């Protein structure tokens, strides 16, 4: 495999990871939002209603849901944390691969 093919492979893999993480995040965010509304209204109000707010993204990234000590939230939110980290790693991988290919690395 040539260097260009490796860049493309990592770029496509990074985009795939980004999209799968985004899909997981949106699905879980809705479910966690309903659970928080029913069981922890104060936390729900603090996070806001729109899924891509920085506060909500950081809540999943830092796994702040663990402070609630609620098994119903934890069971769902761990998937949201995995999805959020998949988005971050995928975006970083795709960005680095694209930058390397544009810079002519390995050509």
Number of helices: 4
Runs with pLDDT <50, length 5+?
A: none
**Gap between N and C termini:** 12 Å
| Helix/strand order | HHHH
Short description:
The chain has 107 residues and is mostly helical.
List the helices and strands and how they pair.
Elements: H1 3-39, H2 41-47, H3 54-61, H4 71-103
Helix pairs in contact: 1-2, 1-4
Descriptive report:
The protein is mainly alpha-helical and about 110 residues long. It has a domain at about 30-105. It has helices spanning about 5-40, 40-45, 55-60, 70-105. Helix 1 (about 5-40) packs across helix 2 (about 40-45) and helix 1 (about 5-40) runs antiparallel to helix 4 (about 70-105). The longest helix has about 35 residues, at about 5-40. The chain starts with a helix and ends with a helix.
Please supply descriptive tags for the structure shown above.
107 residues; mainly alpha
């Amino acid at each position: 495999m040539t260097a260009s093919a490796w860049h493309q492979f990592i770029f496509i893999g990074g985009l795939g990871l980004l999209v799968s993480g985004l899909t997981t995040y949106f699905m879980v965010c809705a479910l966690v939002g309903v659970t928080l509304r029913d069981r922890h209204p104060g936390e729900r109000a603090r996070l806001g209603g729109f899924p891509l707010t920085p506060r909500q993204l950081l809540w999943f990234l830092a796994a702040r849901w663990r402070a609630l000590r609620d098994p119903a939230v934890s069971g769902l939110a761990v998937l949201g944390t995995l999805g959020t980290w998949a988005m971050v790693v995928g975006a970083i991988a795709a960005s680095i691969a694209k930058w390397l290919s544009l810079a002519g690395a390995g050509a």
